[in-house]
Design brief:
Heterokaryon incompatibility domain-containing protein, alpha+beta, about 675 residues, eight-stranded mixed sheet, 3 domains
């Protein structure tokens, strides 16, 4: 199939098949059982679908983009299905963020069944008229928008100015002053500051976030630093660097900071020193240029695009028996696909680069996007993304507690009153976002988020200690993090991996995690008493970077337990038995389970009560699964997983037994604890 023709009309263009969804009888259903849904025909044939895409149908074009994104575009021409696509229009009774959900279902044998989904809403608060967009992100119209965002933020956004020290310059920067095609050079900032004197406006610099990729790129080394201070030829730079320099010059910057050219890459001493300052570099930049869609330096910043990608879609519904009404149809992934799920934002270091910079200019696959402390915007929504797109993956730069509460309450339509300080709710969100990224070197796990940790100190309690990704206050709750339900725990046991964090820290794993510091309405009681918690930093320069060890000394009630596989029909499930009693538990293991049975130790950490009842009966226990540390004395443990144990009304004895053990010390098994130290363990 040929690529769709460029289309830039301001009016919505929708094919007859898509229009018919909103005419005559309104086929809406609410059944949870997808097998019960009627699926009326959308496009009878591939040829009909192709014609709709070619004619500029906004919905069919986006479905085509999804097919292409899956890499299945070439396959659809190989076979012919009786019916190419069908649709489903459904209403969820408890969903107050959309009126209807429209799913376009592709039945072609080469493709997965669901190609794309859209929300259909009449209470929409964003633009409906499409702007004229050119078929490239390197256009005067696009530049005009980028300049407007930058000018507006610098002139009117007080918060965006508040974090930056205007007199700061990194240790080294690239001097890019001059014309667009001029070569550049490395500048040592001590010399720059002498030349600039007190003119703070001249100290402004931009930064670049990019993926290194597998292709070798030019780097600063001990043997070329003198040469670089004299000159770096533009032609020696990868395309992404050349275009970043072009952008920075276009925006009026004389200095640009790029990690590979401003940190001596073959000097461990320089790298450690500069990596500890990374947070200051990005916090004090004026703008961070992000090569968001580029997997390596060869791909550059700019992209050709189809302007139809950025067109709004409004339809007039004329269902029989229902008053005519206009609906805005939008794709939930309009922000997620080009920004959140882009190649660059999967890189661990980039999260703090993106958040700490006062302003960010994204170069995505089909448009430029803007992030600052007061606005998220893109070319499709230049005045700010509508409320319908707001979720925990947007407005990631908000780190002020008051602003965070205002933001959450505005889009969740609730009065968010966390049971813990707001700073910990912000940190919980940052950890979850960061855990979805990857670092190339395992030892970078804590360093790559150290800038964010240092920024968080300003909103945490004054005597707060940072403990390898956790904070000393509310530490009991923070220990209850878990591997995300759809994520895999590590396939390599901790003891076989290079050390990077204590097992009780989420940073010890390379997988998505959730911190269990919920703003839960169910009150909790703590079942452990933390006597001491500490870590040993690798460097005296930073207590938020690498650590060489860490421990928590705590008192609690330990019980012998075992995990037993109960796999059925190809699915793998584990049952938890505590003191020979089977429990009703939801288990999250830190490592992929390969054995059928594991001997573990069960440590209750916190209890949950029913908020709707005056009864103080425990309805759930949040616990950790531990294993003894090989080569260490009795009572030394590392973490194996997290578990929620629930009260079973049909068989309450397991829960009652657990509570009796915690309340009655005569149940205590002394061989599980440190020798001659009752109910006390060392957690490492």
């Amino acid at each position: 199939m040929a690529q769709p023709r460029p289309f830039a009309s301001k009016e919505s263009s929708v094919c007859e098949q898509c229009v018919s969804i909103f005419q005559e009888k309104c086929l809406i259903y609410t059944a949870d059982d997808q097998n019960a849904w009627p699926l009326p025909v959308h496009h009878q044939s591939l040829e009909s679908f192709e014609a709709a895409v070619q004619s500029g149908c906004v919905l069919c074009h986006r479905m085509w983009n999804e097919i292409h994104r899956q890499g299945r575009g070439e396959l659809i021409t190989l076979e012919r299905a009786t019916v190419f696509s069908r649709y489903a229009l459904r209403k969820f009774q408890d969903d107050d963020r959309a009126d209807y959900w429209l799913t376009l279902v592709v039945l072609h044998p080469s493709l997965r069944p669901e190609a794309d989904g859209f929300s259909v809403e009449h209470g929409y608060d964003g633009p409906t008229q499409s702007l004229e967009h050119e078929p490239s992100t390197m256009s005067e119209t696009t530049w005009g928008q980028a300049l407007k965002w930058n000018r507006e933020c610098r002139s009117h956004h007080t918060v965006c100015k508040s974090y930056r020290d205007p007199s700061y310059l990194p240790t080294r920067v690239l001097d890019i002053s001059g014309n667009q095609n001029d070569d550049i050079k490395l500048a040592v900032t001590q010399n720059c500051m002498k030349a600039l004197g007190d003119n703070k406006s001249e100290h402004e610099f931009a930064t670049l976030s990019h993926c290194w990729g597998r292709n070798p790129i030019i780097t600063l080394r001990q043997d070329n630093i003198s040469q670089f201070q004299h000159s770096i030829t533009m032609t020696a730079l990868p395309l992404v660097f050349q275009q970043a320099i072009y952008v920075a010059r276009k925006l009026g910057f004389a200095y640009l900071w790029i990690d590979s050219l401003c940190i001596i890459q073959d000097s461990e001493e320089d790298w450690r020193h500069e990596s500890a300052l990374m947070g200051k570099v990005y916090s004090n930049s004026s703008l961070n240029i992000m090569a968001t869609d580029s997997k390596d330096g060869t791909q550059g910043l700019f992209r050709d695009r189809n302007p139809l990608d950025l067109q709004h879609c409004v339809v007039r519904a004329g269902w029989t028996g229902i008053a005519p009404e206009s609906f805005y149809i939008y794709d939930w992934m309009t922000w997620d696909n080009p920004i959140v799920r882009a190649p660059l934002n999967g890189r661990g270091w980039v999260l703090q680069e993106r958040i700490l910079s006062p302003r960010v200019l994204h170069f995505s696959h089909n448009q430029l996007a803007w992030e600052c402390h007061e606005k998220d915007a893109c070319e499709m929504y230049p005045d700010g993304i509508p409320t319908i797109f707001v979720n925990f993956d947007t407005q990631v730069k908000i780190m002020d507690p008051e602003a965070y509460l205002k933001w959450v309450n505005s889009w969740r339509q609730l009065h968010f009153k966390p049971t813990i300080d707001v700073g910990y709710a912000i940190w919980k969100r940052l950890v979850h976002l960061y855990s979805q990224t990857r670092v190339t070197k395992a030892s970078d796990k804590l360093i790559a988020i150290s800038g964010l940790a240092n920024r968080m100190r300003a909103v945490m309690q004054n005597d707060e200690k940072y403990l390898a990704g956790l904070w000393s206050h509310h530490l009991t709750s923070q220990l209850l993090w878990r591997v995300a339900p759809n994520a895999l725990g590590s396939r390599i046991p901790r003891w076989r991996r290079p050390y990077r964090a204590p097992s009780w820290s989420w940073a010890s794993l390379e997988t998505e995690v959730y911190m269990s510091m919920e703003e839960s309405s169910a009150p909790r009681s703590a079942y452990i008493d933390i006597e001491e918690a500490s870590v040993t930093p690798l460097s005296l320069l930073s207590d938020t970077g690498e650590v060489v060890d860490g421990h928590i000394r705590l008192r609690g009630s330990l019980m012998r337990a075992k995990l037993v596989s109960s796999s059925e029909e190809g699915s793998r499930k584990m049952d938890l038995w505590v003191n020979e009693m089977k429990t009703d538990s939801a288990i999250s293991l830190d490592e992929v389970s390969l054995e059928d049975t594991y001997s573990v130790v069960y440590l209750p950490v916190a209890g949950e009560y029913n908020p709707d009842s005056d009864s103080q009966a425990v309805i759930g226990i949040r616990a950790l699964l531990l294993v003894p540390v090989e080569g260490k004395p009795q009572g030394w443990y590392s973490r194996f997983g997290f578990v929620d144990t629930w009260h079973d009304s049909e068989d309450p004895e397991p829960m009652n037994h657990l509570i009796r053990v915690m309340e009655d010390r005569t149940f205590s098994n002394e061989s599980l604890y440190l020798e001659r130290v009752p109910r006390t363990i060392m957690f490492v």
